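All the exercises in this workshop are built on plain-text protein records. Sequence and backbone structure share a record, each on its own labelled line. The question running through the whole workshop is how a given chain folds. The record below serves as our worked example for the rest of this section.
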Amino acid sequence: MNIDDLLSSIDSEIARLQQARTLLAGTRGGKSAASPPVKRERTLSAAARKRIGDAQRKRWAAAKMAVKTIPAKAAKKAAAPAKKRRLSAAARKRTADAQKERWAAVKAEKAAKPAPAKKVTKKPPAKKPAPAKKAPAKKAPAAKAKKAAPEKATTAPTEAAAS
């Protein structure tokens, strides 16, 4: 069996399976599994809307009545903010005098105690900056070096001959 025969048999099998699927899908009421279900809009009858509205208005009325039935005395107490408690002038004076006495005692204690002697430390002499390093001498460019090389070469044999 060659490859062409295999491909044709597979194609025929796929076509046969697709036909079987469409037949089976048609027996389920004509809807295919791929199509999404259609949502219908739900509507209320006029009587149902009236019942819901009446019930809500009844709840609102009950809430309003609960607010109105608070006793008058309780409403006044709740409405008036709590009065701040304040110190009398005499109490403020006693508190200030007591605080002044406490501070005077702290200051007297500090004055009676001699201050500890500070240790005198000898500072090391300031470091001298390190001497700056000299930059290495720049080498001569290549052209000058070539010119200089033959001169040395010529002078070297003459020096050897002279000695």
Q: What stands out?
A: The mean pLDDT is 78. Helices lie at 3-26, 46-68, 72-79, 89-112, 142-162. The chain is about 60% helix and 0% strand. The CA atoms of residues 98 and 104 lie 10 Å apart.
